[in-house]
Every structure is written in structure tokens, then in C-alpha cells.
Amino acid sequence: MAGREMEVAHLPRSSDPPSGELAALVKRLVDPFRQGAAAEQHVPTGFYTDTTVCIGCKACEVACKEWNLLPADGLRWTGNSYDNTETLSATSWRHVKFVEQFSVVEDPKVSSAGFSLERLLNEPKAGRWLMMSDVCKHCVAAPCQQACPTGAIIHNEFENVFIQPDICNGCSSCVAACPFGVITRSSLDGHSHKCTLCYDRQRDGLIPACAKACPTQSIQFGPIDELRERARARVRDLHQRGVTSAYLYGDTPTANYSRLNSFYLLVDRPSVYGLPDDPVNPTIHMKGDYLRAIASGFAAIVVLLAVLWR
Amino acid sequence: MRTGDALTVAIPGPRGYAQREVTQAPAWRGLVAWDLLFNGMTTGLFLVAAISELAAPQVFTPVAKIAYGIALIVLLIDLACLVLDLGDPLRFHHMLRVFKLGSPMSVGTWCLTAYSVPLAAAAAISALPGGWTHLDGVRRLAVIIGLLPALGSAVYKGVLLSTNAQPGWKDARWLGGYLTSAAIMLGSAQMLVLSSVMGHERATAMLRPALALLLIMNLISLGLLVADVRATLLRTYTRRRMYGVGILSLGVGVLLPLGLLLGGSTSLFVVATAACIALASLAVRFAIIRLNNLGSVAS
Known about the structure:
The complex is a heterodimer.
Chain A: H1 21-30, E1 45-50, H2 59-68, E2 95-101, H3 108-114, H4 117-122, E3 128-134, H5 143-147, E4 153-155, E5 161-163, H6 173-177, E6 184-185, E7 192-193, H7 199-203, H8 209-213, E8 219-223, H9 224-240, E9 247-249, E10 262-266, H10 286-308
Parallel strand pairs in A: 1-10
Antiparallel strand pairs in A: 1-8, 2-3, 4-5, 6-7, 9-10
Chain B: E1 2-3, E2 6-7, H1 30-55, H2 57-84, H3 104-127, H4 136-162, H5 175-197, H6 201-228, H7 230-236, H8 239-263, H9 267-290
């Protein structure tokens, strides 16, 4: 479980802007070290994304960009179905993935000679679309939060993983640590950014913009325990209706990773959706790696001393 | 498109997400490779100078006094690399807001800070004119205080890279071991150069076999590291480039320096030895940094 840190949002606001360059410099140096009272804890909240009802409308992507004033990424033809944002990034905090599972002619000779519209129309239609709106997983033990050396990344009062934009200095430790590829560093301001789970909206009693905009309730927001119950009931329902491949991803902790406060209902392997099949928290190797490094250092020093004392 | 009477449908290229790397590559590039080198050079030089001076003060004190100043200069260059590599360099001091044992970068920041103070003190006292010998005790105390944070500064760098989710780095269990042992090796090479250039024959004679042994030790830890990341190396590099880096690190970084160490004891041989070691070390560090660059995304 991640350690708690102070909430900068609750810092007392300075009444007047600093006057003069020296005062501004002092403020810049001192302000990051000021600590406020810890925020009052709320019921932990999160996302439950039911991919079986996602229709790939991208309303969540648009709502996220609009609410959070994120810049456009430019329209690119990726060649990967209807996916034109490709990944989550500092400017795309929601990313709708499209997986086309249809028969594909592998042989290039067949594709050029024997692949015709008539054949396409008459072939058995056994394929399916998988769509998934991806987002930060808001891990209960988040590697990004553990790696952050400035304390910019915190678990806020809703147990959501939140990057304090006024603290982050763009060291990119979080980018390297995230096994889900959620965070990148923005080329606009040099800081890391990702989904805030609409922290500002939550504080005002509103639900996140993406969940609000989702027309099929594929993205559901709420107290995490309620969401987990709802998701398990949905899986049972799907199993009864013959969709036996349905399961929850991130609902329960594994040997190598904590629970996710943003979890998914999937019907295929995680890697098909671009998720790690077995995510590993990289910090599990830390103790051993430190020991090996220290032992190597001491071994080298012993060799040096042995020669010097000869 | 139409070819003849049949309407053919273009088959798109590789699709889906299963074959893609899930993680995002941090924007750690050439500057980080230089940082890895300078980090090893400053911490290694300080550690070797301090240990040598404490173990055989009559032999090494004059050389160590110069070494502390050089270690400080290299540290400042290294810190500049670290700051410039930040997305927002003017916020470098935010690193000191918190201390987190679970964050290797936080541990490293504090170790470097704790190391810089005694190093600066030792370098400053060493630079004083000869009449200030009554401060030698203070200098020695500063050197002793600096030992642990200097070792921590050498150790954290590899652990920082090996305890993240990046391809290659995440498998590199011996990266910390390699970089730490390399730091001592680089420090010995620098001390050897200083001893030789300053004409301290006894110090030179003592450090030559030590460096030879450390070269072999470092080769062993490099072998363990390569074994860790073999799969990623094969995916990242062409066979030609792998052989190139291999020949550079083994031939220029180990065999040639060993030959030079055995071949002659003049300053020219010693400087050539150290230059070979530094060049090969830099090449290995660039290869390490490139390991995870399978697919980076700029936003």
C-alpha cells in the first residue's frame, strides 16, 4: 500500500503575488517545501470498464480532452483500425483501442490474386470487434508513485493516483516505472501528465467527464467496492449467457502486482488489448538489486585493499 | 482498387496491440549515458582516493589531495547532466522535497547531496597552501564521512534503471553490480593516471596490479549483465552492432588496457590505458541506454 503524503491542494494560498525578482525566486525555491494539512479521506473511487459494451465512439476521449483542456494530437492514419491516438500519453488520458478479430489472408499471393469482394461477402462471418477505453489504472500500489523522487505523485483523498503539476520536475521516473505505459512527459511543459480521475470534478461532487459522456455505460465510476461487486455480478451474468470467456482484469491482486482501482472486464487475453498479461511491480527486485550492487562494490574495494596492503 | 474485373481489397499491415511494447520509453538519451560515466568517475575516484589514502597515507596522500578536486569537478559536470536531463530543470530542487527509500532516484539525490558536502570540504582543504597542515585531520574526517554516501551514489544508478518496467533494463539484475564495480575500476584508472603523471612511482606500482584485477572483475559483472539482458540485446541490436560493442568493450576496454598495463609503466602507457577504459565504458553505457528504446512516444 502506498504511503500517504501531504495534499498540496489544501495549502493555504499566499495572499499576494511576490513583488520583485528576489521575492519571486525565494517563493519558487520555498513553496515546493511547504506542507499543508492532510486532506480528509473519502471513500476510494475508481473506474470499472466493461469492454463488452464499448462501441468505440470515442466520446470518452473527446470529453476528457475538453474537460482537461488537453491539446489535440493531430489526426494520424495509423493503419490500426479506427485507432488514431495509438497510445495513452501526456496529452491523451483516454485511449480507445480497436481490435479486429476477423479472418486475415496471410499469404500475399492469395491476397493479391484470390481475395475479392465477392469472396469477402460470402465468407463465414465469425469475427468480432473488441473495443476498450484505456486509462490510468490508478494502481493501489502504484510503481509511478513509488518511483517519484519529488513526491509529486500521490494517492489523493479518493485513493486515486494523482500527479501534482506544480511539483513534478519531469524526471521521467514515473514514465519508466509504469508497466502499463500510461504516463509520458509532455513536450509542452516538460512535466508528466496522466488521468487525474477528474479530481477537480470529484471534489465538486461530479463524476469524471469520460464516465459522464460514455453512452453505453462501458465506463462506470463510483466507490471502488461497489464497482467490484457490480463487475463480478456482470461476469456471472455473462457466464450464464454463454460468454464464458468474460473475466475481470485487475480486480484482485496477483503475486506480482496490486489491485487496480481502474479495472476491466475483458473477453480475451490481456495482451490482445495491449495490457500486460502478468504485470510486475518493478520494485519487487529492488532489495536484491541493491544487495548485488553493494556486494559488487565491496568486492571491488576488498580487491583494491588486498593489493594495497600486500 | 480495381484490377481487371475483380475488386480486390488491400490487406492492412500488422494490426492489433499484442505485438507492441506496452511500456513507454522515458526520454533518457545520450545525456544519461554521460551521466552514468561521470557518476562512476567521480564516485570511483573519491572512493579509491579515500581508501588508498586511509590504507597507505605515506604513499597516496599527495595524489589523493589532487584527486578530491578532480572528483569535485567531475561531480559538478555530472550534476549538470542530471539537471539538464529534467523536463523542467528549474525545478531540480524539488528532488529534495521528500526522501523515499522506495525511489532509487530519491535515494540517489540524497546520496549525491550528502556526498558533495564532504567532497567539497576535502577538495577545498586539499587546495589550501602547505602551511595549513593542521587541517589535515578535518580533511581526513570529511573523507571518512564521504565514504558511505559516495558508495550510495555509485550504487543507486544501476538500481534506478533495473527497477523499472522498461524492456531490457527490467531484466538487468546485475546492472547495479556492474556499474558499481565499474566505478571502482574507473576510479583506480584515474588514480593511476594521477600517480603516474605526478611522478609517484610507488603509488603507480601499487595501483597497476589493482587496476588489472578490477578490470577482470568488471568483465565478470559485465558478463552477468549481458546474460541478464541477452534476449533484449538480440531484439535491439543487429548482430554486427552487437559484435561492434562487444569488441569495443572486451578488446578496447579490457584486453588492450591489460596489455598496456603489462607492456609499460610510462605515463603515456598509463594515460592510454585509462583512455581505453573510459572509451569502452562510455560505449557500454550508450548500449545500456539504448536497450529500452524499442518504441518511444513523444507527446
